[in-house]
Amino acid sequence: MKRLFSILAITGIMAFGSVQAQEATDSTAAAQTQVEEVAAQADEANAVETTTADEDAPAAEASFTQKLKQRFVEGGPGFMGIVLLCLILGLAIAIERIIYLNLSTTNTKKLVADVEDALKSGGVNAAKEVCRNTSGPVASIYYQGLDRYDHGVDSAEKAVVAYGGVQMGQLEKNVSWISLFIALAPMLGFMGTVIGMIEAFDNIESAGSMEPSLVAGGIKVALLTTVFGLIVAMILQVFYNYITAKIDSIVNDMEDASIMLIDMLSDYRK
């Protein structure tokens, strides 16, 4: 439940940031429009001189953000909005997983050394106290194994293996949703492409003639949806690969530490 609230909170923050950026962009565009209107009136007052100056002066280029916004609007609110939603939800889950995995990462070598020293000095109870005061999946696995030590080393080993699977499931939780958004974003883009092509051919059929202006609009919309879908998939793919690599690293530490724990318990029993 806490992870669900964190995902919803991150999604809300990202959506609120997008709205604020949109409002700021609209305000900037409105101010720019007013400036252009004033400049146009001044140009009309000084027709000959201003026309010559405008021909010589280079045209101001739009910023990358303005171009991106323009292309997004041209792509249509239907599919482009869904693609944007995939990006926001995918990033929210990815950020939540990255935070959780970083908090789950512990210094395994230090933990193993502390548990070994505690076993030699204070026994199993002291080692359990060390694990109880340490966060992370490795410490939790150690605690479960030490807690079953009274029933024998075999029982402790079974507990370590079983609880290791539980911890692995916690690490991989919600990661499948990121892969879903990675696959869904390009598919939505391709669907927008197909629909745009269908609309282009409908315009040709209605006009009864093959004119470039009739086809250009539909093809442009179709290609824009595909481009944005691929961009979203590439962004989420980077986060997905980082998360899977982090999970593999933590799982390897868990497996190595589990083997060390069983060896320590076997030696301690002797």
TrEMBL record:
<keyword id="KW-0732">Signal</keyword>
<keyword id="KW-1133">Transmembrane helix</keyword>
<dbReference type="Pfam" id="PF01618">
    <property type="entry name" value="MotA_ExbB"/>
</dbReference>
<keyword id="KW-0472">Membrane</keyword>
<feature type="signal peptide">
    <location>
        <begin position="1"/>
        <end position="21"/>
    </location>
</feature>
<dbReference type="InterPro" id="IPR050790">
    <property type="entry name" value="ExbB/TolQ_transport"/>
</dbReference>
<feature type="transmembrane region" description="Helical">
    <location>
        <begin position="177"/>
        <end position="198"/>
    </location>
</feature>
<feature type="transmembrane region" description="Helical">
    <location>
        <begin position="78"/>
        <end position="100"/>
    </location>
</feature>
<keyword id="KW-0812">Transmembrane</keyword>
<dbReference type="InterPro" id="IPR002898">
    <property type="entry name" value="MotA_ExbB_proton_chnl"/>
</dbReference>
<protein>
    <submittedName>
        <fullName>MotA/TolQ/ExbB proton channel family protein</fullName>
    </submittedName>
</protein>
<keyword id="KW-0813">Transport</keyword>
<comment type="similarity">
    <text>Belongs to the exbB/tolQ family.</text>
</comment>
<keyword id="KW-1003">Cell membrane</keyword>
<feature type="domain" description="MotA/TolQ/ExbB proton channel">
    <location>
        <begin position="137"/>
        <end position="255"/>
    </location>
</feature>
<feature type="transmembrane region" description="Helical">
    <location>
        <begin position="218"/>
        <end position="240"/>
    </location>
</feature>
<keyword id="KW-0653">Protein transport</keyword>
